[in-house]
Amino acid sequence: MYILQETLFFFEEWLKLELKERLELFFSSLDLRPYARKLKSRTPQGAPGYCREAILQAFLAAPMECRK
Asked: Is the dihedral of CA 24, 57, 18, 4 positive or negative?
């Protein structure tokens, strides 16, 4: 049995979007909270932590920003 995922957008439309619009569209379709919880530090040492979801967004956005 195969499950066909519905298309979020067409690739041609994606390329026409500005980077900011592209990132907003991309992250609005993802729920990174379960993955951010997995990144929680197990030790209370070090500097105050950063928002784990923001770290994941930056990690995922980097390849899109490099494309010109």
From this structure: negative
Helices H / strands E in the chain, number of each: 4, 0
Q: Where are the domains of the chain?
A: 32-40+50-68
Q: What is the pLDDT of residues 19-47, one digit of tens each?
A: 888 888 888 888 888 888 887 767 666 56
- Residue 47 in tokens: 């500097």
List Cα–Cα distances, 37 to 6, 7, 44, 52, 60, in angstroms. Answer: 27, 28, 15, 8, 16
Which carries the bigger pLDDT value, residue 54 or residue 10? 54
Residue 36 and residue 55: Cα distance in Å, rounded? 8
